Amino acid sequence: MKYLESLDNLLQSVLESFIDGVLVLTDQHDLVYANTVARAIYAQLWHNDTDPLPREIQRIYQALLDSKNLYPNQPVVLESEIVTPKTTFRIRAQWLALEVASRPCLLLRLQDQNQSVQSLALAEAQKWGLTPRETEVWLQRRSGYSRKAIAANLYIALDTVKKHLKNIHLKQQALNAEAEWQASQAS
């Protein structure tokens, strides 16, 4: 029994550490599990007290039901996006068979695109050895800001933004060249 409890705690820890939201619902729309990220995203999407689910999630749920009838022996993963004024959310949905549930559940993975871009930009900044200021510039560039907007947002000159972006690209190219050289030496 202790083994199952520690396995459950481990699974809980893994799901909570995901940058994506993980939401599991029964086919009757009852909540089975939601990690912290999923609860935060869900709160941003759900604005109607009369509907149990946001409209886009209801639409995906219905499409999954239809796919179950059309393709009963194939796993189907549906993707959709919800665009809000602040961000875009990507939703991936599929059926999930759980031993604790007598009927299939709906597994929803909710991803805040802005958060994903920020995480990628931070990983790249670390990988390329960017300075703190270069990292700030890169975070904004990865988020789709123009050079002019970055200069305004960071209160620096446009030429300074250009200089930082040039340095970032040089560091990226140097790392790529080093990786290519190492690969050629390994062959």
Textual characterization of the structure:
- The chain is α+β, with helices and mostly antiparallel strands and 187 residues long.
- The chain is 57% helix and 18% strand.
- The protein has 7 helices and 5 strands.
- It has a 5-stranded antiparallel beta sheet.
- The longest helix has 29 residues.
- 16% of the residues are buried.
Distance between the termini: 50 Å
Order of helices and strands: HEEHHEEEHHHH
Count helical runs.
7
Gyration radius over CA: 22 Å
Share of β-strand residues: 15-25%
Q: What is the percent of helical residues?
A: 55-70%
Reported for the largest beta sheet, the result is:
5 strands, antiparallel
How many strands in all? Answer: 5
Arrangement of strands in the largest sheet: 2-1-5-4-3
Give keywords.
five-stranded antiparallel sheet, alpha+beta, 5 strands, 7 helices, 187 residues
Question: What is the element layout, followed by pairings?
Answer:
Layout: H1 2-17, E1 21-26, E2 31-34, H2 36-45, H3 55-70, E3 78-83, E4 88-96, E5 105-112, H4 113-128, H5 132-142, H6 147-154, H7 158-186
Antiparallel strand pairs: 1-2, 1-5, 3-4, 4-5
Task: Describe what is shown at a glance.
The chain has 187 residues and is α+β, with helices and mostly antiparallel strands. It has helices at residues 2-17, 36-45, 55-70, 113-128, 132-142, 147-154, 158-186; strands spanning 21-26, 31-34, 78-83, 88-96, 105-112.
